[in-house]
Amino acid sequence: MGLTGNAAIVGAAQYKPEKYQSAPQMFHLEQVADLARLALRDAGMSIKELDGLVIHGPQFHEASIFVPAMAAEYLGIELNFAEVVDLGGCTSVGMIWRAAAAVEMGLCEAVLCVIPARMAPFGPNDDPMWMAQAMRYGGHSTAFGAPEAEFDLPYGHLGQNTGYAMIAQRYAAKYGYDPEVMAKIAVDQRFNAQGHQDAIFRGSELTVEQVLASKMVADPLHILEIVMPVAGGAAVIVTSKEKAAKAKNRPAFVTGFGERLSYKSPSYANEMTVTPLAQAASKAFAMAGVRPEDMDAAQLYDCYTITVLLSLEDAGFCPKGEGMRFIREHNLTYKGDFPLNTHGGQLSFGQSASAGGMSQVIEAFDQIAGRGGERQLARADQIFVSGTGGVMSEQGALILQGG
Ligand SMILES: CC(=O)CC(=O)SCCNC(=O)CCNC(=O)[C@H](O)C(C)(C)COP(=O)(O)OP(=O)(O)OC[C@H]1O[C@@H](n2cnc3c(N)ncnc32)[C@H](O)[C@@H]1OP(=O)(O)O
């Protein structure tokens, strides 16, 4: 049951992360078209070959319904498969497996997965204040009737920072917490970012002391353990094995996936320190017929350092409660014995809304395709990718393997 490895990523493109103030504003459809052009060029394919579209829809305030049909019309293509994915930071991983499954089912042959994440010019019905706030406190709905508006927000649980801090506090109470070890995650990833020409924090290396001396945002999370929101956008082409055989790049076959959605707010979790990634990852490994120790690298969603710690444990790279020891004992850089987030992760490459997780998918593809430049791993045949939405509540796992 599941994928049989007959669909692959063959091309990708992403905008260089930029601060919102300096990034160009583009209408979302314009971004879709531009990203599609860049990803197709990378794959060596023509737009006429596309017959599937997976799109991230919520930001389309130009039109809130029929988003895939509107985008297809704008691209001038007809579709055999269309899907909107809205899973926050789990969107990217969710898009890739849905595209691969659709290809394997024979619904379509080539799918564009696309997330526009630059700001669009404000329209007459947009409220710039609300949008600025939504961008800042991304994860929480303040909408009338939303459970978090009633039970979380009045207690100061605004958006993601406080939710992840709460999980970190619970972890600390249960298993202990060494701030230096947590800072090492950010430091090793910042080292990796020096090897990626598009990383927003290329050119500024980091030490454990700097992380620990940086502003405390939500105890125990320092600002340098938290992602900085940036403008961006990404697109990936997933196609059939037959088409992949003719592709320009070495394909990354999608051989396993898992997805698990749980509570949206950690306040409702039975046990905050165990995330739904445990189920998602074990399904993905079983489907691909591989184990965590077979992986050449892990690209783990990293909105916060605590996300990385929990993901390492729940994906099965080390037992529960032993993440600190694992991080202390391993060099997580691309030069090390456990290459993790080899592009710098979102902490150091940059986090653009919902497209941030696609940077992890694209880095896995780049490594498998052998175009990682100075950060290229000697062996990159099997890579694990995770996606995290909400406050550890939406989890996705992918296994990508070179052909
Ligand atoms: C979405 C999902 O489903 C799952 C997820 O990914 S959850 C995560 C979603 N993302 C978020 O919630 C965003 C988290 N980040 C933040 O809220 C903010 O960055 C923050 C509150 C941590 C800091 O904001 P702030 O204190 O107002 O910083 P601000 O005054 O804007 O900037 C101060 C400086 O620090 C920098 N900075 C801001 N945030 C930074 C960060 N996280 N890391 C490093 N530098 C940062 C700024 O660039 C600025 O530098 P300059 O003065 O040189 O321009």
TrEMBL record:
SUPFAM superfamilies, alphabetized: Thiolase-like
Pfam family name, one: Thiolase_C_1
Entry-linked CDD domains: SCP-x_thiolase
Lineage: superkingdom: Bacteria
Residue span(s) of domain Thiolase C-terminal: 260-401
Alphabetized PANTHER family for the sequence: ACETYL-COA C-ACETYLTRANSFERASE, LIPID-TRANSFER PROTEIN, PUTATIVE-RELATED
Designated name of the protein: Thiolase family protein
